[in-house]
Task: inverse folding
């Protein structure tokens, strides 16, 4: 579609409202996020490379597992599959970063709340495991999520306070913690 046609339609280019809910996520409850996601997602054309990753992250938070994976694939494959017919102009760095964000903040459920690193991971049905590293207040943490457990390894000598689901842990210097993986979050009804 041409921009002229899109601007005269009921469709929107990107996830502007959802981006606000993402950046200010601690100020909104899940029901508010759900109402907005359910309204805006069907009318968003994802013309912006920023859009699919935000949809993936919020879909994960809401327990919309299939939609989260669909949006993850869209952000990860934006340039590979030339979704927007503009790859010849160069790769979208926002989509590359969005792929990482979809995994870490989406499937990993990573947030910082009250000064504590929080993880609420789930694994897409197509995967057996995933892992990522993150720096948090001087600690380099390797997070490994499998079908059964979450293992967080501290690769530094700086202890880290973390929370996995609703349980708090301290990952000691060069230490590790292991937690059982909860079932994937259920969609709100």
Result:
């Amino acid at each position: 579609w041409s921009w002229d046609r899109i601007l005269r339609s009921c469709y929107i280019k990107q996830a502007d409202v959802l981006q606000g809910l993402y950046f200010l996520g601690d100020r909104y409850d899940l029901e508010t996020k759900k109402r907005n996601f359910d309204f805006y997602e069907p009318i968003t054309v994802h013309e912006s490379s920023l859009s699919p990753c935000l949809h993936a992250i919020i879909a994960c938070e809401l327990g919309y597992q299939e939609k989260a994976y669909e949006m993850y694939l869209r952000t990860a494959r934006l340039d590979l599959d030339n979704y927007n017919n503009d790859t010849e102009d160069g790769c979208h760095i926002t989509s590359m970063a969005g792929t990482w964000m979809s995994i870490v903040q989406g499937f990993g459920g990573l947030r910082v709340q009250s000064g504590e690193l929080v993880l609420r991971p789930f694994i897409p049905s197509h995967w057996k495991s995933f892992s990522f590293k993150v720096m948090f207040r001087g600690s380099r943490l390797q997070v490994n999520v499998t079908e059964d457990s979450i293992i967080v390894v501290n690769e530094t000598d700086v202890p880290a306070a973390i929370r996995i689901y609703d349980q708090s842990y301290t990952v000691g210097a060069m230490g590790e913690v292991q937690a059982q993986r909860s079932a994937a979050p259920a969609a709100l009804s």
Remarks:
- The radius of gyration is 18 Å.
